[in-house]
Amino acid sequence: GVAASFRPSLTASSAAKDAMTGCNKKILLKLKLSVAEIEKLTQEIITTTTEVLDSVCAVQGDRTFENTIAPMAKLATDMTPLITSCDFPMHVSTDEALRQASGEADEALRKFQVDCSMRIDVYEAVKVYEEQRKQRGEKLGAEAERLVERMLRDFRRDGLALPEDKRNQVKELKKQLSEKEVLFQKNLNEDKTRHAFAVEELEGMSEDYIASLEDAEDGKKWVTLKYPDILPLMQKAKREETRMVMDKLKATQCEAVNTPLLEDALNIRCQLASLLGYEDHAGYVLEERMAKRTGAAREMLTELVAKLAPFADKEVLRLKEVKDAERKEMGQDSDGKINSWDFQYYHTLLKEREYSVDEEKVKEYFPLEVVKKGLLEAYQTILSLEFTQTEPHEPWHEDVEMWEVKDAPTGAFMGYFYLDLHPREGKYNHCAVFGLVAGCDMAPSASDSKFGEVERVCPVAAMVANFTKPIKEKPSLLKHGEVVTFFHEFGHVMHQICTKAHFCEFSGTRTERDFVEAPSQMLENWCFEEEPLTKMSGHYLNKGEPLSKELRDNMIRSKNLNSGLLNLRQVFFGSFDLAIHTSGPKVDTKEVWGSLREKITRIANSSGGNGSASFGHIMGGYDCGYYGYLWSEVFSADMFTIFKASGNLYSPEVGARYRSCILEPGGTVDGDVMVRNFLGRELDKNAFLVSNGLQ
Question: What residues are paired with 401 via a beta bridge?
Fold first, then answer.
């Protein structure tokens, strides 16, 4: 089994168990492993898992929940922190060899997972248990029943109801698919594309920005495709050629290596869907989503295009006017088009001119520490929680902070979160929350026990971001968009921590993929309201002077600037994703990307290229899932109206309802049921248009 040093001592430390939540304070993560230890632990996870599954299959006599389902549920609970210990370092470790070993462990564990999910003997054991249970007329608790239904559904979705030859085909195809997906992601993460610009070519960029770039030969500066480099440049670089160069590099990023990988993956997904009896890959994926069927997702996107297009067309005309006027001022001709390298720039210019919102000025009011303080206070007030900074458990870098979470009214312990907020070499280059340990019962049972009655594993989450690092004379300053991101991602942290699910399977953010963003999207709204903006801002030089009323009002007004175009961009990503997964085995992704982009976004596909070669979502677990961002925004917009209507954005009463109806259930209840419970009525789809200023 698991070597003693790695076996989670789940029984020994009951003294650390909280009397009210049942949460054990012991953190079961091993985040300081060497390369050899990661390799060893990976093998031990595989060995232990195999032993438990073998023993479940070997049960003689009647099958019960205790001898068939419970051991597998407990296995998932025990293994999660150990799996994280192996696969999390690839995203955050400062040591390249460790990142490499962690990536290899991740690949090995994924492959092993495929093997486990294809074990016919385990499927037979669960199937026999369920048949016997029904014959005995035995009732299960609601969550246990949902778990067994899920297990059987997943086995069927993995092809275990198929004859052996087809099963083997499924297994082989899944392994091939996993290899393509891992390689696609690896190519993106390791992409070193960059361009050296002379300082005068960076006209319009701030001194801070230029100082943050790496030096190249002859006094030039390197600009990479990483967000902190490319995004500000596309927004502020005055010279069209400069933006054009970077846009073309972005449009063709990894095109040569990743296009064939993506197209092979589409072919494999198509074969798999057909083997498993689905019309296409989208039908297969959406079966377990809130949308349930492709038609529903497509209808939503089509409906949005119809509603957004008239606004977007007006917005394009306005941007063209701004472009023509600027070119005239510069004594240059305008091509009368909004090119792909123009949109961000003229959007930013319009924001500055119409609303006097200069991102560089706004940034000065958002020092990271001030934002963090305001954000943590907001979440503590709304959700009735208490956060205390604590000595980090096995930190992977000196920037890493750790916080302990308690329920404010009772002082009961709930879990921990890490914050790792600054960029560094080799680190995950976007913003994401990793659920490192799932909060759930240590020994899950068939009955619905009351929360806190049984001992629980405490949830641990990590928010990983890339906010600029402080320098000697300046703290880390956030753009308003980054403040929104911080609020959004921290919402995922709370979803992990507040969970009351009994089973690991339903813990925290393990809800339907097209619902999982809704709780976080709802919380973004605070970043566009007067009171939170005042509480979260303070000028870094003028002793914390908050945003002026004028600037704040302009920011709130500018929230919906070009919201038609910006939402159509999301509709495009979602439509592209569904299109390539419903178009049969042979898809020309570059052609579909170009034609849909022009048709939907209203912005020219000027740089050509195959943008899908760097569209990580469709090879990173969000295939047929991108529509979910907009789908869940429709829900989140309506949920926010409840806070608004209460007259207090920080209302602990509405917050308590939010915590109990939306955050605590995790995946134990369907998303649409959770939303109805919170709203106390049916969904109002128009709230989305209202929140975008389009109605």
Answer: 419
Q: Are strands 401-407 and 456-457 parallel, antiparallel or unpaired?
A: unpaired
- Look at the alpha carbons of 610, 612, 615, 619 in this order and tell me if their dihedral is positive or negative: negative
Say how far apart CA 460 and CA 85 lie, in whole Å: 12
489 is a catalytic site residue: yes
Structure tokens given for 270: 């198509």
Tokens in use for 104? 């290899």
Q: Please, which pLDDT band fits residue 10 given cuts at 50, 70 and 90?
A: very low
| C-alpha separations of 545 from 355, 529, 533, 558 in Å | 21, 18, 12, 22
Q: Which of 437, 440, 451, 457 lies closest to 502, judged by CA? A: 440
**H-only helix segments in 137-212:** 142-157, 164-189, 207-212
Nearest alpha-carbon partner for 87 in 43, 141, 42, 127: 42
What is the tens place of the pLDDT at every residue in 418-455?
Answer: 999 999 989 988 899 999 999 999 988 998 778 778 89
Q: What is the pTM (predicted TM-score) of this model?
A: 0.84
Q: Please, which contacts does 297-300 make with residues 24 or more away whose CB atoms are closer than 8 Å?
A: 297/514, 297/574, 297/578, 297/624, 297/627, 297/631, 298/575, 298/578, 300/627, 300/630, 300/631, 300/634
Inter-CA distances, 310 with 318, 343, 562, 565, 568, Å: 13, 18, 12, 10, 11
Q: Which of 489, 517, 524, 664 is catalytic?
A: 489
Cβ(659)–Cβ(614) under 8 Å?
Answer: no
Phi and psi for 365 in degrees, rounded to 5? -90, -5
Which residues make Cβ contacts (< 8 Å) with residue 2, sequence separation at least 6?
44, 45, 47, 48, 82
Instruction: Please give the Cα distance from 121 to 257 (Å, whole number).
Output: 39
| 381-390: pLDDT as tens digits | 999 999 999 9
What residue has token string 């001194």?
207
- Helix/strand/coil for 446: coil
